[in-house]
Design goal:
OB fold (Dihydrolipoamide Acetyltransferase, E2P), 5-stranded mixed barrel, 8 strands, binds zinc ion
């Protein structure tokens, strides 16, 4: 006869955020966030064009040479959506996903926090920081409000 734990003691497996598909082109993006707390963007080593999302070849000059460049973390809301359905754990209804216009030029999609969904405005200043979602994942998150 096997014993089973009473329901109250059954370990609850917590849902984790979906994992990014990491490859040779975008690994630096997640390593910069995890290891240095930096938001880094791919920069062409020949024409200095910044590009995101990461790709092997510069769309400007077709160079295959590039290096990661740390961004300031300052930006603004270019666009956003409020997600209601379907709700997939660990997310809760009503969170905001925004396209953030970095002051250096590139746009990056991330969660926007520190503002109610009714008061988000296109163009409002944000500050981006690297935040640990769980043991194995650090992502950029935008917070309403600028910084000096
Ligand atoms: Zn280039």
């Amino acid at each position: 006869m096997t014993e089973t734990l009473p329901e109250a003691q059954t370990p609850v497996k917590q849902a984790l955020r979906p994992r990014p598909a990491i490859n040779l082109d975008n690994a630096f993006f997640f390593e910069s966030l995890t290891e240095r707390g930096e938001l880094s963007i791919q920069q062409c080593s020949d024409c200095e064009e910044l590009r995101h999302p990461p790709v092997p070849m510069c769309p400007q000059c077709h160079s295959l040479h590039w290096a990661p460049k740390a961004m300031s973390g300052r930006g603004s809301v270019h666009s956003y959506v409020v997600l209601h359905h379907p709700i997939v754990p660990p997310f809760e209804a009503g969170y905001i996903v925004a396209v953030i216009q970095l002051e250096e030029g590139p746009r990056v999609v991330m969660n926007l926090e520190g503002v109610e969904r009714e008061t988000v405005q296109i163009g409002m200043p944000v500050t981006v920081s690297a935040e640990r979602m769980d043991e194995g994942l650090v992502l950029p998150v935008a917070h309403a409000g600028g910084r000096a």
